[in-house]
Every structure is written in C-alpha cells, then in structure tokens.
Amino acid sequence: MNFKLSHAQALGLMVLATLLWSMAGIVSRQITQAQGFEVTFWRSFFTLLALALGLTWATQGKVWRLAQFHSRTLWLSGLCWSVMFTAFMLAMTMTTVANVLITLSLGPLLTALLHRLLGGQTLSRQTWGSIALAAVGIGYMFLSQIQLDGGQHLKGMLVAVCVPMAGSVQWNLMKTRQQDAAQMNMLPAILIGAVLSCLFTAPLAFPATANASDMQWLAMLGVFQLALPCTLAVLSSQVLKPHEVALLALLEVLFGISWAWWG
Q1: I want to staple 17 with a disulfide (CB 3.0 to 4.6 A). Which of 7, 53, 229, 231 is the partner?
Q2: Consecutive sets of 10 residues in the chain, 263 residues long: mean pLDDT of each?
Q3: Distance between CA 241 and CA 220 in Å, rounded?
Q4: What are the backbone angles phi and psi of residue 95, rounded to the nearest 5°?
Q5: Contact, 102 vs 146, CB < 8 A?
C-alpha cells in the first residue's frame, strides 16, 4: 500500500473524497425509521465490513499482522476516526445539515493552529488569509440558515464541533507519522475507528428499528460515504500538508449544497 502519489494526484483524490463525504446530508434524509445512535452504528458497521474485505484483498491478508497494531499512534488515529464517525452522524440527526456544515468550517483553522503549536512549518500570510476567507465565506453563506431555537439544535452543533477538533488532531498526526515511520501504512486506523464507533454506539442502537430501505441507505453510507473517501484521504495525506487537507475538506460543504439542490 506504500506508493508515492504526485501532488496533483493527491489533490484529485482529496477532492473526490470530499465529494463522497458530502453525500451524507442528502442520503441520511432518506432514512425513515432508524434514528440517532442506530444510524451511527449501522453506518460504522458497514464501513468496518467494507474495510475488512477491501484491506484484506489489497494487502493479501497482511493487514492482520499483529505487529503493526502495537503502534500507539495507530490507535490514537483510530480514536480520532471513531470520534469523527460518531459525532458527525449524531449531529446530523440532532440538527440541520446547514448547522453541521457551518461547524465543520472550523476545521482548517483548528488544524493550522495545532500544526503551529506542534512546531510545524510557519504558514504564510496567504495561507492564513485563505483559511480565514474560507471560514468567513461559509459562515456568511449559511448565516440565514442557522437555527438555534430550541436546545436540540445547540446540542447538535456542540456534538458536531467534535468533528473538526478530532480532524485537526488526525491530519497533523497522519502527516507526522507518514514522514517519520518510513511511510507506515495508516489505513488500518480507519478500521480501528469503525470498530470503536460500533462499540461506542451499540449499547444505545438496539432494539433496531431500521427497515430494509434504511439498511440499503446505511450500507451505501458505510461503503461509499465513509470507507472509500476516508481511504482516499489517508492516501492523500501522505503528500498534502495538514492545512491543505483541512482546506480541501471544506469542499464537502459546497458539494453538500450541490447534492441538496440536485436532490
């Protein structure tokens, strides 16, 4: 799994990842019976299933070697993925898509700040300007859409803020590890994240209420909205800088609007 992408290829894969991530809003609105923790559990379960099969095939079973799972960094990355998986879907069931997307726009700022605190390369004024402009622009676009009447919306946004916080740790951790450990394969961290998300949400996900149609949509989310794009993001992070990944992730907001308009 250790092959070198060009910068242009990494950019292309990251853009594709954000396009796939952005399906969450419109697809989740097709789910009629399953709610809250059940939605999160089944999406993570199908992600786990897809990754287990995909990584086993891609590595000819080498992914299951115990040695690589001894890494604390791998488990910390997996924990970050689990927070992102769980918090995002819970927030989507607690508040509006617009509220969640606005909250996600904090990602580049948090990632850049953490990158600087960890002793990373000083970002240029142009980069800081791009980060600020992106956040202000997205905030302005959705200003009229924000809904805070009622405690439920506020709770949803507080849950959603866990996503950019975990993401800021994730992208910085990913870049540091890829540079230090001879291009260590970090793809199993996504698998760990899916397992942890299932374990966190399983006690509150049952008895299940999802019908056959819901399960089809949840399977689609697990495979194409989570497993595949997260894999692409990890591969891209081998080449892109943390703040580049976080800035490109904002395309999820724009693509999300397009999906909603198309749908």
Answers
A1: 229
A2: 77 93 84 84 94 89 75 88 90 79 77 71 65 67 58 80 89 67 69 94 87 92 93 87 80 78 69
A3: 30
A4: -145, -175
A5: yes
